[in-house]
Amino acid sequence: MSSIPKIVILGAGYGGILTAQRLQKALNYNEADVTLVNRHEYHYFTTHLHMPAAGTDSVEHTRVSISKLIDEFKIDLVKSSVQEIRTQQKKVILEDGTLSYDYLVIALGGEPETFGIPGLDKYAMTIRSINSVRLIREHIEYQFAKYKNDNSAQEHINFVIGGAGFSGIEFVAELADRVPGLCKEYDVDPSMVNIYNVEAAPTALPGFAPELVEHAMNVLTKKGVTFKMGVAIKECLPNAVILATGEEIKASTIVWTGGIRGNRLIEAAGFEAMRGRVKVDEFLRAPGHDNIFIIGDGSLMINPEGRPYPPTAQIAMQQGECCAHNLVASIRNQQPKKFVFSNKGTVASLGKGQGIAVVGDKTYKGWTAAQLKKVVDMRYLFIIGGIPLVLKKGRFR
C-alpha cells in the first residue's frame, strides 16, 4: 500500500484549475497523488458565457482543453460526473467508479437559485455551461425565424431576462448588440423587438456606485432595453412571466440570471450549508474537517463589513491559490495561511466598446472600462496558460 497522500479536486472551474496548477508547481515528485475530476475535458470561462449565449462571440473563445493547462504526469485528469461525496468513508462516488481521498477539494461551482418561483426551473433557460449557452443562442435565432413565419406572434421576439446583477446586465447588453444583426438577417423590423430586464431589487448591479449604475442603465436603455426594477417575477409560464404587480409579459425566451447557490451535492454530503454554501474557516476548510477544503461558489466567507463575499471568479482564483498552499503545508506539517481576499477591481461589460469599472478608489466608464475588461480577461488567460493562451483566446479588438 502506498503511503503517498491522495488529493482529489472536484471541479475544474476557476478555483479547481488554480488549485491543480499551484499543486503541480509546489509538490515534489511522489509527495502526493493528485486527481482532478471534471465532467468535461475542457475548462470554460464563466465570465465570458454571456457573449456566445447572445451570439456575439464564438463558444471556442470561452473554453480551453484542460490537458493544455495541467501536466498530466503530475495531475491525473478524470472525466466524470460526481454523484455523491461520502466524508465518513473518504470516498467520492462518480458515475463510473469510486475515488478514495486523504484530502478533498470541493470546487464544483454553483447552480441557478430560483428562490422557489413556480415554473422558473422548468421554463427559463440559464447561462451556466457551454451547452446551455449553445441552446440559448440557437433558441434566440429560431424565434426570429418563427416570427418571420407568423408575424402575429409577438412573443417570439420578446425577451425577458430575470436578474440585473453582473450576468443579467452583461447578457442584456450583448443581446441588445446582437438584435440589429438578427433583424437584418431575418428581415424583422427592429422596433418590434422587446428586451425586458426584470429585477426584484430596487437597483441593478449591486456593489457599483449609483452614478455608474445610472450610466449603465442609460447606455442599455438607448440600446433598446426596458428595465423593470423593484418588481419580482411571481411565476414563469411556458411563454410568459407573471410579475408581482400582476402584469404578464409574453415571451418565448426567458433567461434567468437572478442568483447562484452552491452545488446540491454539498448539502447531500451532510455539510451545514446555506443555499448550498458552506461557511468555511479562515484556511478554507469545512467545519469539522481538517482534510476537506471548499472553494468557489460552494464556499461562504464573510467580509470585514460582515456580509458574505459575492461568488466571483476573482475570489475563486485566489481561494484556489491559497487552498493549494494549505494542502502542501498540511502534507509537510507546516503552518497553513489564512485566506485574505485582495480586491483587484470590478468590471462589468455593457456590450461593444462600453463598460463600467471600479479599480481601487477610481471609477471608469465607457471605452476605458471596456478596455479594462479585456485586460482583466487576458490577465486570467496569462495566469492559467501564459502568453500562448493569451494570443490564442484573448480579445484584442
Topology:
Layout: E1 6-10, H1 14-26, E2 33-38, E3 42-44, H2 50-54, E4 63-65, E5 75-79, E6 82-86, E7 91-94, E8 97-100, E9 103-106, E10 110-112, H3 120-123, E11 125-126, H4 130-149, E12 158-162, H5 166-186, E13 194-199, H6 210-222, E14 225-229, E15 233-237, E16 240-243, E17 248-250, E18 253-256, E19 260-262, H7 264-268, E20 278-279, E21 292-294, E22 299-300, H8 313-331, E23 346-349, E24 355-359, E25 362-365, H9 367-393
Parallel strand pairs: 1-2, 1-9, 2-5, 9-21, 11-18, 12-13, 12-18, 13-14, 20-22
Antiparallel strand pairs: 3-4, 6-7, 7-8, 10-19, 15-16, 16-17, 23-24, 24-25
GO biological process, one term: aerobic electron transport chain
GO molecular function, one term: NAD(P)H dehydrogenase (quinone) activity
Protein name: NADH dehydrogenase
Task: Describe what this molecule looks like in 3D.
The protein contains 9 helices and 25 strands. With 397 residues, it is an alpha/beta fold. The strands form 8 sheets. It has a 5-stranded parallel β-sheet, covered by helices on one side. The chain is globular, with a radius of gyration of 22 Å.
Summarize the structure.
It contains nine helices and 25 strands.
| Oligomeric state | single chain
Task: Count every beta strand, where a strand is a DSSP E run of 2 or more residues.
Answer: 25
Question: How far do the termini sit from each other?
Answer: 55 Å
**Structural class, from secondary structure content?**
alpha/beta
Task: Record the strand order, biggest sheet.
Answer: 5-2-1-9-21
Annotation field: number of helices: 9
List descriptors.
9 helices; oxidoreductase; five-stranded parallel sheet; 32% helix; FAD/NAD-bd_sf; NADH dehydrogenase; FAD; flavoprotein; 397 residues
